Amino acid sequence: MSVEEIPSVARDAVLKKSSLPKEKQFVKGYDFNDGIDYNAIFESYKTSGFQATNLGLAIEEINKMLLCRDQSLRSEDHDDMESDPFIRRKSNCTIFLGYTSNMASSGIRDTIRFLVQ
Fold this sequence. Notes:
- This protein is an all-alpha fold.
- 38% of the residues lie in helices and 0% in strands.
- The chain has helices spanning 8-14, 38-44, 52-70, 101-104, 109-116.
- The longest helix has 19 residues, at 52-70.
């Protein structure tokens, strides 16, 4: 459906013209390729869409996962039938990185990029 085919009442409500304020701030996260500068990282939170509470909770969960992963596998948890070393369980915890689309469009995308690298 093209913009011209959208009913005018919907188009006028959703596609309102607006201008950016003079004091606008662009969303940008910290570039970890520049090295680690903790002051700069914390400063970048102002333009990252940063939510301190949620980040703190996420850090707690990651720390729990890392503690679990560091514990040796019990003998009953070993899968002797799985011959493929890529698939065979190697630790007590497999960590997946998941995030919502709104994080990819915020300054947190730079942190996600670093974690993936």
